[in-house]
Amino acid sequence: MKRVGRYGLIGFIRNGFVSLAAILIMTITLFTAATLVISGAALNSVLKQLTDNVDVTVYFTTDATDDQIAQLQTSLQALPEVASVALTTRDQALAAFQQRHQNDQLTMQALQELGDNPLGASLEIRAKQTSQYETIAQYLQTQQSNGSDIGAAIDSVNFYQNKTAIDRLTGIISTSRTLGLGIALVLGLASLLIAFNTIRLAIYTARDEIGVMNLVGASHWYVRGPFVIAGILYGVISGLLVLLLLYPITLYLGPGSETFFGTFNVFTYFVSSFPLLFLIIMATGIALGSLSSYLAVRRYLHS
Amino acid sequence: MIYFDKVTKIYQDGAPPAVEDITLQIEPGEFVSIVGHSGAGKTTLLKMLFAEVLPTEGTVFFGEREVPRLSTSELLKLRRNIGTIFQDFRLLPTKNVFENIAFALEVAGRSDEDIQADVPHVLDLVGLADKLWSFPHELSGGEQQRVAIARAIVNQPDVLIADEPTGNLDPINAHDIVEILKKINDLGTTVLLTTHNKSVVDSIGRRVVTMDQGRVVRDDKQGKYVL
């Protein structure tokens, strides 16, 4: 094992140009892989933000009692589709309204002339998944139509006005995820094939050498081993290069990505997910390098 | 010890046989020159001995072992017991002289101590003790062939196969190589030499097997190059 390792290292060093070519191609491959991982995270972040902004709001009448409001809130929280229910009281609604329109003199004047708080309390309901809003809306509709005490306190539900947008969003999210996965698979596969063929070419240049090793009676492991070791070295060095490159690139793109994606900062993600990224990139590099070498040598081995 | 039993080799259907119905026995310690024009089948015959090529018909025996039927591990052991040298030397270009020879010992599982002792000794035998750390591209043709011989004999094989070893060498180097081969044979190793160099064969003065169009046409115990 020690000898095989030594030969792998020596071969890696002495075949300088071939090693360099393999490392360059693998760096591009692993960089593509890392980009796909980070892009996936960015996409998920955007989708999550969109999802978080979707909700169903129940507006109460101005004479709804605290009991009625509390009852509806409790019954909604008990629904399996519901992730959270947030109450905005009449006073909170009024304060928020005044905050929003503080520079609008006309509106503020009209509010003053009304005297009383014209706004009712409301409940903002978040579902666990966007596809579940329909069920929640139907529950509320049932409450309204069955003449219950709770139903009488409901003034309006804003779901059906937003239904089209919510349905469309659900569709976009689903398509985005599928498309993202599809693109990742195609790009990933293309990158893997290119890296594999590059290593095959590198081993092709050593075919005469492998022939000699066969002739002197070297076992398959003795022939293959140094090339697998070299493949691992290609993977490790390429992986380290990619991680080194990603640092300044994500640092540079960080502020821009936050502006573009909302709350997703690509540099923050890189730093916080470094252990995971390190594992993915190094494991992919080592697996790709070693497996490619193992398979590529096979055609030159014969008994 | 080596017995070719009615071996025939046809590389492609419809093509003439490269080797046809050859029966040939070689005793331990013999020096056999196999001569013939290019394409006579000399190299194919030798390749069948270490199973680089399998016979289409017939079989090959090495001692008691039937070569085409050997398992992978048995075949590797056989190859370690057969030293081979070729016209194009076939040294490993990215390894220096020491490493090229040491490689043959390493695949045979020898220790580092044995390797450190044996490699300089065998290089001394072929007159290249001062070239231990040179790379093949830094050596002349004659020197490369001597390194190849050193690698071939370092495991003290029973048989040394030399396939046109002087093909790329000038007459002086060719003579030196032949002298080394004779010395190796005198030490007890069976030597099979293929060549179409008349002066090489005549200078050896030992058994000559003549091949033509895949067949053995002459087999002289103390032969000359006759075609």
Report what the structure shows.
The complex is a heterodimer of chains A (about 300) and B (about 230). Chain A is of the alpha+beta class. Chain A has a four-stranded antiparallel beta sheet. The longest helix of chain A has about 45 residues. Chain A is elongated, with a radius of gyration of 31 Å. Chain A is built from twelve helices and four strands; from the N terminus they run ααβαβααβααβααααα. Chain B has about 230 residues and is an alpha/beta fold. In chain B, the strands form two sheets. A six-stranded mixed beta sheet of chain B has the order 6-7-8-3-9-10, with helices on both faces. A four-stranded antiparallel beta sheet of chain B has the order 2-1-4-5, with helices on one face. In chain B, a hairpin with a 2-residue loop joins β4 and β5. Chains A and B meet through α1 and α9 of A and α2 and α3 of B.
* Count of separate DSSP helical elements of chain A: 12
- The oligomeric state of the chains shown is heterodimer
Structural class of chain B: alpha/beta
What would the principal axes of the Cα set say about the shape of chain B?
A: globular
Largest sheet of chain A: 4 strands, antiparallel
Q: In which order are the strands of the major sheet of chain B placed?
A: 6-7-8-3-9-10
Descriptive terms for the model:
A: about 300 residues, alpha+beta, 4-stranded antiparallel β-sheet, about 5% strand, elongated, B: alpha/beta, 10 strands
Write a brief caption for the model.
Chain A is 76% helix and 7% strand.
Q: What is the strand and helix layout of this fold?
A:
The complex is a heterodimer of chains A (303) and B (227).
Chain A: H1 2-14, H2 16-53, E1 56-60, H3 66-77, E2 82-88, H4 90-100, H5 105-114, E3 122-127, H6 133-145, H7 149-153, E4 154-157, H8 159-204, H9 207-215, H10 220-261, H11 266-272, H12 274-298
Antiparallel strand pairs in A: 1-3, 1-4, 2-3
Helix pairs in contact in A: 1-10, 2-8, 2-10, 2-12, 8-12, 10-11, 10-12
Chain B: E1 2-9, E2 19-26, E3 31-35, H1 42-49, E4 57-62, E5 65-66, H2 72-80, E6 82-86, H3 97-107, H4 112-125, H5 141-153, E7 159-163, H6 171-186, E8 190-195, H7 198-204, E9 207-212, E10 215-220
Parallel strand pairs in B: 3-8, 3-9, 6-7, 7-8
Antiparallel strand pairs in B: 1-2, 1-4, 4-5, 9-10
Helix pairs in contact in B: 3-4, 3-5, 4-5, 5-6
